[in-house]
């Protein structure tokens, strides 16, 4: 990873505003420009497989024109942006091949011109790119500190808990918008709204506790989402998404559990898409740890998968009474976000943003309430069977 890191001045209180972004140049030299309301610190680095350039910034209020980033030029095919973590924003440029970061700087505002962040890219060879990555291994390790694998941590302690804890994970977020409908509705917004509604309904029962992995438009790596559930010793982990497909004719909800072999081709394809979330955000995943094969971990994993399957089977029935389901709504595949070996975990695709009828439902508060009630019913029955103290 070629790393450029420099301080170019502090910004005034409040997040700087980005008002426009553009790409100029050709296939030999390309410049990316972002108009800002003030000067910022930045760091920029490259990643391979696929080739990308990542720009890390402090929190930015992106007020860019509609469609910004969908079209590139020269060495940049397209680009995306968003909040990456609390207080941090990220821009990811998809590039056409190996590139070198020639310059990265911010120009102060002058007269009627706003402050501008400028990134210059040069075309380079694969060999030169790879050599630069090798030399900057330490920088890559620092910029992408891996989340400690869940299987390497001590088991959570639920013995003193008065209520079961459900962790609700709203998928995508920040720089990763997820599916975007033809009308511009973003999956990350839809699933967060549903997650909050579900939290409200569950907490109204007074019998369970609820936490959200994210409460705003923040990107979370898949490993961080899994670790959040383990750190809080969750009794159930629900990951919420909204699907898409090219034809636009498929609609309805689906319930997924983890399996080493996908139940069907569609489930395998969806898992591959959802597992690519970290790549979309510009994360370097090459340091992911190996699986732990300890027999106790394996036994716990089997028990957890049984609990996950039991909850998923019940959830399908409750959802079917509240909303349309796809054909064969109970499916499984290798979703990374469901891999906590000791937390029962289920992924729910609440509908298809690629379908006009589903989009209308997904954006309806009345529909969200109805479906949240159905999920709540499934959760209460699951814990009523699993924990005697739920009835207190």
TrEMBL record:
The keyword Zinc does not apply. SUPFAM superfamilies: Zn-dependent exopeptidases. The keyword Signal does not apply. GO terms for molecular function: N-acetylmuramoyl-L-alanine amidase activity. Residues 226-380 form the MurNAc-LAA domain. InterPro entries: AMIN_dom, MurNAc-LAA_cat, N-acetylmuramoyl_amidase_3. GO terms for biological process: peptidoglycan catabolic process. One of its GO terms (cellular component) is outer membrane-bounded periplasmic space. Its EC number is 3.5.1.28. Residues 138-161 are annotated as: Disordered. Keywords: Hydrolase. SMART domains: Ami_3. It catalyses: Hydrolyzes the link between N-acetylmuramoyl residues and L-amino acid residues in certain cell-wall glycopeptides. This is N-acetylmuramoyl-L-alanine amidase. It comes from Pleomorphomonas diazotrophica.
């Amino acid at each position: 990873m070629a790393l450029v890191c420099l301080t170019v001045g502090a910004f005034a209180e409040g997040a700087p505003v980005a008002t426009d972004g553009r790409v100029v140049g050709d296939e030999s030299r390309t410049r990316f420009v972002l108009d800002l309301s003030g000067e910022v610190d930045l760091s920029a680095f490259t990643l391979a497989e696929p080739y990308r350039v990542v720009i890390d910034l402090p929190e930015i209020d992106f007020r860019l024109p509609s469609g910004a980033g969908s079209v590139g030029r020269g060495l940049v095919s397209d680009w995306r942006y968003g909040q990456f973590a609390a207080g941090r924003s990220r821009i990811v440029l998809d590039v056409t091949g190996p590139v070198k970061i020639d310059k990265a700087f911010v120009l102060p505002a002058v007269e009627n011109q706003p402050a501008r962040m400028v990134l210059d890219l040069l075309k380079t060879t694969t060999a030169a790119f790879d050599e630069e990555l090798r030399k900057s291994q330490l920088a890559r390790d620092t910029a992408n500190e891996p989340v400690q694998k869940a299987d390497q941590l001590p088991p959570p302690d639920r013995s003193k808990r008065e209520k079961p804890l459900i962790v609700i994970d709203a998928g995508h977020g920040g720089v990763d918008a997820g599916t975007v409908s033809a009308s511009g509705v973003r999956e990350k917004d839809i699933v967060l709204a549903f997650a909050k509604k579900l939290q409200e309904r569950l907490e109204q029962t007074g019998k369970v506790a609820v936490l959200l992995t994210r409460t705003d438009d923040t990107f979370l790596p898949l490993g961080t989402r899994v670790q959040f559930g383990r750190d809080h010793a969750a009794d159930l982990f629900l990951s919420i998404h909204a699907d898409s497909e090219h034809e636009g004719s498929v609609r309805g909800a689906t319930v997924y559990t983890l399996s080493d072999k996908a139940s069907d081709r569609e489930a395998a394809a969806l898992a591959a898409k959802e597992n690519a979330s970290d790549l979309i955000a510009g994360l370097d995943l090459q340091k992911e740890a190996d699986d732990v094969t300890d027999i106790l971990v394996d036994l716990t994993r089997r028990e957890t998968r049984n609990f996950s399957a039991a909850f998923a089977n019940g959830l399908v029935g409750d959802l079917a009474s509240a909303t349309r389901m796809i054909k064969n709504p109970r499916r499984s595949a290798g979703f990374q976000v469901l891999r906590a070996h000791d937390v029962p975990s289920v992924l729910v695709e609440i509908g298809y943003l690629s379908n006009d009828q589903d989009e209308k439902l997904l954006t309806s508060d009345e529909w969200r309430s109805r479906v949240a009630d159905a999920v709540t019913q499934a959760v209460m029955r699951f814990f009523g069977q699993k924990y005697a103290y739920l009835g207190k």
